[in-house]
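I'd like us to work through together how a protein chain folds, taking it slowly. To get us started, please write out a protein record for me. Label the sequence line and the structure token line clearly, so we can match residues to local backbone shapes. Once you have written the record down, we can walk along the chain together.
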Amino acid sequence: MMQMRFLPYLLLICGAFFALCSAGCLEGIPFLGPPAVYPHIVPIEGGTMPEPPRYMFAFQDRNVEVDAPVEAPVYAGARATDKSARIFDRALTEPQWREGIYRALISDPAQDALYIGVISTLKAEQHLNSLDSDEYAELMAVFVQSIPYENQNLTSPRYPIETYVDGMGDCDDKSLFLAGLLSREGYRTALLYFEPERHMAVGVGCPERGYRNTGYAYIETTNVSLVGIPPETLAGGTVLSSPPVVIPVGNGMLNYTLCNETSAIWRLKGDSEQILARIETEVRDMETRLEEKKGVLDARKSSLEAFLSVGDTGGYNRGVAAYNAEVSQYNQMRADLLTRVERFNRIAEVHNFIVTSQHDRKGIWEWYLTFPGL
């Protein structure tokens, strides 16, 4: 009976096959099933993990602490997960399955407890200090940026839960974590992937054209930096010259609206660097001329003293006026040099304040509004 029922099925298939062949060329048929299977965490019961760090980082005018609970079985499962994709549909392009892997690592539901724990802490900070949506986005960015950067040359990025527990991450590890936080909190979020430079950053929606007309403000995650400001160079001197591949994450709609402020702050930093470079050149030149002038004065003073040593007061008196005039010139040159040095130091303080206060865009902007200018 089994064979009898099976044979007609085979004959039906064969008949359909010959019918298709007799009709001419075969047409493709749609692929059935998922085009790819992406990595997912399977918690390991009894799995262990190192003690997660208690994060303390500077934000605005205070320190913020994040100490979220982590499930050891989930962390152990994440560590053990093969972070590659199994491709079944050959029509799936490499950019498509790469994006699928990144999204799978960010949004794996096994990490929900971690996200909830971290976000509840950051939400409490938002409510306690009445942070608006822009400041809240900055808070999340500074938190992830403050996680130590370490490039371990791993073949696959970490899950956010791994980055959190390990207390370190490289550009893609930290970018995945920040993208997960921003997207869960309703921000328009994307990963910005620079393939030639092998770099990744995060984009948060902005009402302007954004970084390279992507519609997203650039967030560098490897160090604490202002939202909307890409790095001038990466580690090793690499410059971001290629347009990024934009990988949207989540379906949030909130934008970051203060790129005009961060851009103005960064322009001031750039202006200060140009002025400092020019003044430094001027100071070096003035120091050289001042040293030469001092040599001339020392020689003339020795000549005048020689007149006195032989009792030639006439020769001494004839040279004193010229010597004193040159001393006046020297003193004026020295005063001009000190004025240049004072200006250099004042502008250097401005530059250093901006560079060392990037965790506090609000504080820099309040200072900027009262700054008299360079």
Observations:
- The longest helix spans residues 259-309.
- The radius of gyration is 33 Å.
